[in-house]
Fold this protein.
Amino acid sequence: MDGQIPSWISTQFSLGSLTLADNGLVGEIPTWLWAMAASSFYELNISQNHLHWSLFPNGPNSRIAILDVSSNALSGNIPSEWPSLLIPVPGYPFRLRLNDNLFTGNIPPSFCNSYPWIQLRLENNMLDGTIPWFLVEDGSTVYDLNLVGNNLEGRMPEGLIFSTIIEYLVLRNNQLSGNFPPSFTNDAILQYLDIGHNKFTGHLPKSIGNFLSLQVLVMNDNQFSGNILSELGDLKQLQILDLSSNNLSGSIPHNIVFLRAMAAAIEDGYVLQSSVQYDEGINRLSSSLGGLNMASKGTELYYTYILSTLTSIDLSNNQLNGDVPLDLGKLKGLRFLNLSMNSLNGIIPRSLGDMSQLESLDLSSNKLSGNNPSELQSLSYLAYLNLSNNNLSGNIPQRGQMITFENTSYAGNPSLQGCPLPKNCNWPKFAPPHPVSEAVSKDEEESQQIPWYEIGLGWSYGAGFLSIVVLLLLVRESWRKKYFKGVDDILKFMFPFVRNRTL
């Protein structure tokens, strides 16, 4: 639909749920729609349209439990008198989605801990100020809090981490600062934590190993320092670990090979979702989590949903040193591994050849030495490889996926040789992926080519002529007799010993 919200809807007095999402609706949200909501609605979804003007300009008096006005052009401050005027509906825990609009100002104090929010999504607006501490007071029921892509600043309330309710906490792309909360207990049921692209500082606390339910941990593009904690190995359900672009130092802890969710090669994926139920016994809906940006295969990819098959470790752009763990290949279910732009030394472990699901491997811009292990040839899913700017030596393996990559995958290793690098490259004559001989002129190149077009044209004419002859011989008996008599005469002339033969 396009145009404004149809006025005939105002005559439908028995509606309990109204969804007009993903259309071309424009204009203001009519006041009669809020009047209907006050009397009958428990769910209203008008997301993904082009609606504008302030939300609830006169203040609502509604019983809506699930409200989704995301992905519109709504602007102005979120009214302070709202949402405290909403009336709970038994059996329908509150979900509020105001994301992807043009809201400004602070998060209103009316979002208090006494209000039973279950899902609160305010991402991708222009909200400023600090994260209200009352969102996570004792008694809070928020399990899905998404504040991505605003201008929020200040410290992160410790209650967000200490909460025994929150499962999805996404604070990426803000101006938050300060240290990460120093300690927390294993009562937390947090499954998804994304605080990337902020200004957090300090060391990672050892108690991070208490997040036993954590499946996604994204802390990239901050100013964290110190060592990577060995306690990360206690996170048996962790699928995605991104600590890239910080100031972390020291070596990669050996305990990282104990990340059990990355060690299993899972073929059939499922969407990451909550397994907990409401007090009323209603299953929670899976959260889209506002999406996840993840660097893989040499570029940044956007994932709307997190599957069980999506496994990744990104420790790039830090100050890590020491060896790559020799038994890192135990993580056989890992699909993306990025350790680039550090100061890692030693060899490339042969065990990486056991990562049967690996799709992207980036070890570039380190100080790795030794040979390029032939075991990498067995990685049949490997679509991206970058070993450039190291101190590798010896020959590049010439089988499997290794011969499918460009020379940029191996450049910057002075002692490395073999195709696709020009040094000691002898491609098979039948399939040279990259010409290594000196350039020849266009005329010389054309003269050396086999005239396949002319040959094919000659065969086509010959086949056509023979087809016509055969067809005529099959149709007319007199022509067939003349044809075979002619063949007989030719044979008698060429071979005298058959003259006495009766044909």
About this structure: Helices lie at 31-39, 158-162, 260-263, 442-448, 452-475, 477-494. Residues 455-498 form one domain. The chain has six helices and 32 strands. The longest strand covers residues 24-28.
